[in-house]
Amino acid sequence: MQVIDFKDARCRHCYKCVRHCAVKAISVRDEQARIMVDHCINCGRCLEVCPQNAKTFASDMERVKGYLEQGDKTIISIAPSYAGVLDFDRPGQIVDALQKLGFYEVRETAEGAALVTNEYKKLVREQKMPNIITTCCPSVNDLIEKYYPDCAKLMAPVVSPMIAHGRYIKKLYGPDVKVVFLGPCIAKKQEAIGDERVRGAIDAILTFEELALWLKESGIDLHSCEDKPMGNPDPKINRLYPVSGGVIQSVITEEEADGYHKVFVDGLENCMEMLECLRKGELDHCFIEANVCEGGCAKGPASAHWSTSYVKTKVKIENVVSYKAARDLPEMSAEEMYKKFGDRSISDLQPSEEQITRILRSTGKYTPEDELNCGACGYSTCREKAVAVFQGKAELSMCMPYALAQAESMSNVVMDVTPNMIFVIGNDMKILDCNGKGQELLGVGHEEAVQRYIFEFIETEDIENVLLTREPVLRKKVKLNKETIVAEETIVYIEKLDAVLVMFRDVTREEKVKEQRYNLKVETVEMAQKVIEKQMMVAQEIAGLLGETTAETKVTLTKLRDSILNDEE
Q1: Contact (Cβ atoms closer than 8 angstroms) between residue 134 and residue 290
Q2: Which structural domain, as residue segments, surrounds residue 473?
């Protein structure tokens, strides 16, 4: 079942969750992180470190409220870490607050821890196991069964205090009673609901964070509540289970100390190191208390809301503990306290050496020297990340050095091949950067250019105005290099840098062509005017000649007419 996951978030090029996941149970696809259920041990570290607060948790809040609304007899099993995490004046105030919410009874999970302690004592006395690993932490249990299955035979075949308590409560009140576990651990959800070996002991899980929200919604102030007793007898020293070494103190007393060497290991990396030692046969006859959370359950991922230091939490818990063994334990059968652990290892498809080489080369890694192993992608080595790419857990783009090199390469290519002169000018008029064409305009190299000021080379009135007003200048015609270059000037303010981007597009040739075209037009017009004037003169001359010819013709014809007429007379 899916207990935790990430909602869609702006996690592009972050990979913080991948870096902090020791078992690499997070896949990244389309630049979005997702938790792989089969690989996950529900330690919750990825959700704690996510800068986008993009966690989702399969909450049972509504289910629990439904139990209460329907009138179901519902009993809370509260983890002993409440004494160091919740903010109250007296422990009994939490009992009153929970009863006001509608719970029938409040009992301490430490009551179940006392039952587990009794089973651990039996294993210690029997001396049959070469090493004994406690099985109270569900994340440690998943870690061993999934990633160190050869160590599963060293796990104490005993249920966790939560399961033992849930079974005892149902045995005490009947199978129809609803049992809700309240604690700081999100992995308990997977254990209670997702593990078929112990399913049915616990009906729902609430975290301390969820309880705080519920109390706030209901207007219940812990400090104003009455001091009421828990529904169970004092579990004595078993209240120490949530702090480092608490299980060992509860199990191995002075008279039993000679049997096994006492070892307690906190933190996921430390647990993995311990399991590696067991694999190599470096540990013998050790009783090992293992917990994924540093500092024990008191610093579980669902208690981080209060940001309480481990030392303060530990002291608060120890102040309410009676350092005596619990007496008159309830009767529980061996079957009710038994849990079998085994191999649940993950089998991911492994790439060939050729496939790894091909993936490495696709991110510019052709030689071992190219493999920086920087860890920015979340994987400790480039080869490990290449394997993850092959398995569909990672993307090629997650290689930050390669992506940066590509980006820088592309930007440099664009800057260098453009025919435009480009500058970045700071608010003090100092040249911050310029491209090759810009260096040609200045007549100096890049190294010298970035040490000088732009007003040493060109007029800067427009640049100063843009820095002052932040209003851009677009495609303004200016003359550069002692008026030998005509350029189209564009200046844009860069807010993040408090600087301006200045671009000059050399239009000298265009201007010359334009001038030549203009001159050609003027010459053509002048020629046309001359032709017109000449045509007018010719027309006038022709008209004059035609006028004289017409008059002469008229005189001649008149004389001819008169002559003919005279002859007839």
Answers
A1: yes
A2: 418-506
Q: What is the pTM of this model?
A: 0.72
Are residues 313 and 298 in contact, defined by beta-carbon separation less than 8 angstroms?
A: yes
Average pLDDT over residues 326-341: 90
CB atoms within 10 A of CB 265: 22
CA 507 – CA 56 distance, rounded (Å): 58
pLDDT tens-place string over residues 3-46: 777 777 667 778 888 999 999 999 998 888 888 999 999 988 88
- Answer yes or no: is 87 within a domain: yes
Give the residues across from 261 on adjacent strands.
Answer: 286
User: For residue 441, what is the domain's CATH number?
Assistant: 3.30.450.20
Around 425, how many Cα atoms within 13 Å sit in the side-chain half-sphere? 30
* Phi, psi (degrees; rounded to nearest 5) at 9: -145, 170
pLDDT digit string, tens, across residues 485-512 = 999 999 999 988 899 999 999 998 887 8
Q: Cβ neighbours of residue 312 under 8 Å, at least 6 residues apart? A: 84
**Does 334 map to a domain?**
no
Using alpha carbons only, what angle is made at residue 494 by residues 489 and 495, rounded to the nearest 5 degrees?
150
Average pLDDT, the chain: 87
Residue 464: strand, helix, or coil: helix
Do the strands 178-183 and 74-78 form a parallel or antiparallel pair, or are they unpaired? parallel
**DSSP state, residue 338:** B
Instruction: Identify the sign of the CA torsion 60, 168, 186, 106.
Output: positive
CB 81 within 8 A of CB 136: no
CATH number of the domain at 26, please: 3.30.70.20
Q: How many CA atoms lie within 13 A of 543 on its CB side?
A: 6
Residue 355: Cβ within 10 Å count:
14
CATH number, position 381: 1.10.15
What is the SS3 assignment for 155?
strand
Q: Does residue 428 sit in the same domain as residue 502?
A: yes
Q: Can you spell out the DSSP letters for 35-93?
A: E-TTT-----HHHHH-TT--EEE---HHHHHHHHHTT--EEEEE-TTHHHHS--SSTHH
Say whether 106 sits in a helix, a strand or coil: strand
Count of structural domains within the chain: 4
560 — pLDDT class (breaks 50, 70, 90): low
Strand, helix or coil for residue 32: strand
Question: Which region among 168-177, 184-193, 301-310, 481-490 has the lowest average model confidence (pLDDT)?
Answer: 301-310
| Token pair belonging to 207 | 């975290």
Rounded Cα gap, residues 463 and 454, in angstroms: 9
What are phi and psi for residue 276, nearest 5 degrees? -65, -40
Q: Does 89 reside within a domain?
A: yes
Token pair listed for 456:
């040493």
